[in-house]
Amino acid sequence: MDFGSCCVMNVQGEKEPMDFGQAIRALKAGKKVARAGWNGKGMFLWLKPATVVKSEVCCDPVLKKIADDNGGKIPALGTICMFTAQKQVLTGWLASQSDMLSEDWEIVE
To answer: What's the confidence (pLDDT) of residue 60?
Structure first.
């Protein structure tokens, strides 16, 4: 499995679907992934890496106050985000049991 090539290929050079574990490894390698079985068009996941949020760039007043109270910055954990069929960003996507057990995951270009 070579995530540098943007797809998982079999020995015949054909694109092969992945299981959930392979999809997670692809996310960690900086790839976007989606399930072929999802009904919405254009949906995909990506990993937003951990970072430090500085209060001066924070637009969320609650988060800004937390950062200010923490010396002007606050560590933020990494999270899986989804681009939804409605063209919105969902932060903190959670996999269903069906998602975890499916073997139709693909890398999205």
So the answer is: 94
